[in-house]
Amino acid sequence: MIKNEIVKQISTLLKGENLTLESISVEESSFGDYSTSFPLKLTKFKSYQTPIEVAKFFVSKLQKNTLFSEVTATEPGFINFKLNQKEAAKMLLEIIRQEKYYGKTSPNKNKKARVEFVSANPTGPLHIGNARGGPIGDSIASVLEKTGFQVQREYYNNDIGTQVDIFGDSLIALIKTKLGEKQEIVEEKTYQGEYLEELAEKIIKKLSLTSIETVQNKSEEIKALASVTLSEEIIVDCQAMGISFDEIIKESEFQSSGKTEKVVAKLKKKGLTKEKDSAVWFAPNDAYLKDRESVLVRGDGRATYFADDIAYHEEKFESKPDLVVNILGSNHHGHVPRLQAAIASLGFDANKFKPILYQYVRVRRGNEVVKMSKRAGNYVTAREVLDEVGKDAFRFLLLFNSANSHIDFDLELAKKHKADNPVYYVQYAHARLSSILKKASPLDLDKFDPGLLTTAQEFSLIKKILEFPDLVFELSESFAIHQLAHYSISLAELFHHFYEKDKVISSNQELTHSRLALIRATKITLENSLSLLGVSAPESM
RNA sequence: GCGCCUGUAGCUCAGUGGAUAGAGCACUAGUCUUCGGAACUAGGUGUCGGGGGUUCGAAUCCCUCCAGGCGCGCCA
Fold first, then answer.
1. Could you tell me if residue A61 is left (phi over 0), alpha (psi between -120 and 50 degrees) or otherwise beta?
2. Nearest nucleotide relative to A430: CA against C1'
3. H runs (alpha helix) in A390-508
4. pLDDT band at A444, cuts 50/70/90?
5. Between the CA of A31 and the C1' of B11, what is the distance in angstroms?
6. Lower CB density within 10 Å: C or N end of chain A?
């Protein structure tokens, strides 16, 4: 936490000087090893008139830290820090001691976070679009844990509603056809695909359906079984992505328990609803939402998804979390402000609510866009892609882009075992690291001398390793998880550079063991990064 | 019509107020008696979609226009 250390020192000094600043940012920089421009951002100067004078003043106070070999002020008001190479190398010992805990910090100790992701409807197999939320949510949850949060991973099962009804009707129609009834009209809205056939066969067998009458009598049972079967299948797909949930929450339970009804009544009491066309609408006093009122209870008395979701979020906030993260497909962007308004109007702190919207995924095979799957009929399933490219490439490539950008997922690239496939590049580095450690005699830290790690390659690698805890902490606030994928690539790259130039195993025992310590620390850092991404770190490939 | 996201090198993308805008791929030429060649070294391209504004400073913030994707239902 070097950057954090600098920020802390500056903050203390600022207080002493009675100067305040909203945020101090420290960045890696080619002008020093770290740099900050906060003197340029001060608006309230005391006895120091210009940014450069402020910078100089702080430099005189900061220079005493042994971690830096040089602290300088440069025009127009930057402060640059040069890391002391030997002191930095010394920190490798601590990393080796911490091992899998390296990167773990505790700013969020004793805090609770709830992360909701995937939340696909049980009306078909998980598709690649919804699946993108899986790795994103899972890795964000892991990052939060790494900064001290106690995290609950949850999946919201939308097991009721119009979509589910339409799906149920399609299924029942299909079962009837299979049992001999002639269907006259096939409606456009009906669900299709091989999976529906499979499901129909399975249900006929399980419920021993023999005639149209039995289907009629057992229609509710059929729908329930279909919903459970598909939900289970989605959960199994998630497991194949390396994801397991702590909690699966069913939408139907908010209705059956009366929680939805209660929360609608609460909103009504606060005067935030109105009745129009025999339905109950959410009508908050919010300029932005004025023309976007939406229905809570339909004309026929049934609650909408929105109402249930409010009840769900009331339940979330009543558990007193410090952070509520929702990973949603970008098509939910209209839903988010409404939900936020509802959360705020129920008296909860909407600042704790962090929705993350991700854009959709298009699947390509080379230059050709893949649109449909045999199984689902009209979209590409997560399972097909997973089976074809494997969990590691699947997760890494979905986490490689920022959530805001669209992804073209190239099946051909994902399967390539070459450098243009970044996941193999990183994994290969890890296998190489393991191989060196196996080949060498066991690491003897008594022979470790930080003063021997003096080459440019060694220093760059050490700096990159030391960035890791800072990055994890930043990600716990920015949720920009793709930066972790890029970090792991850059770490692998710096290791390869070092490997080519500096020979690790030699007759010089002190140098060998000092470099082995660097190798060990690199391996730990790479492993911990990959572990947060949910990608395996192979010992050999 | 309204809203959200995107537009950065030939391609795929990083970079959201800092200093000379960066990687990877592709392309060309090299590096194997040496710890794993799935690697490394060297070579260079940019109206940061266009225009205007804010300020010491803008790819980044604001306005506007253009292009692409998505959404806008008593769907979820």
1. alpha
2. B36
3. 391-399, 411-415, 422-439, 456-478, 482-501
4. very high
5. 32
6. C
Give the global pTM: 0.94
What is the nearest nucleotide to A497, using C1' and CA? B40
Q: Is residue A381 within 8 Å of A125, Cβ to Cβ?
A: yes
Q: Left if phi > 0, otherwise alpha if psi is -120 to 50, otherwise beta: which for A148?
A: left
Task: From the CA of A76 to the C1' of B57: give the distance in Å.
Answer: 10
Reported as a single tens digit per residue, the pLDDT across A315-356 is 999 999 999 999 999 888 889 988 998 999 899 998 899 999
Distance A254 CA to B32 C1' (A): 66
Bases of chain B with protein Cβ within 7 A: 3-7, 12-19, 23-26, 34-41, 56-57, 68-76
Q: What is the DSSP letter of A351?
A: G
In the structure, how far is the CA atom of residue A288 from the C1' atom of nucleotide B66, in angstroms?
A: 27
- How long is the CA A76 to C1' B53 vector, in angstroms? 24
Which nucleotide across the nucleic acid strands is nearest to A401, CA versus C1'? B13
DSSP A110-175: T-EEEEE-----TTSSPBHHHHTHHHHHHHHHHHHHHTT-EEEEEEEE--SSHHHHHHHHHHHHHH
Say which DSSP state A303 is in: B
C1' of nucleotide B38: residue with nearest CA: A418
Cis before A39? omega within 30: no
Taking the C-alpha atoms of residue A85 and residue A491, their distance in angstroms, rounded to an integer, is: 18
What confidence tens digit (pLDDT) does each residue in A6-26 have? 888 888 888 777 776 767 888
Q: Are A150 and A113 in contact (CB under 8 A)?
A: yes
Tokens 């900050």, located at residue: A36
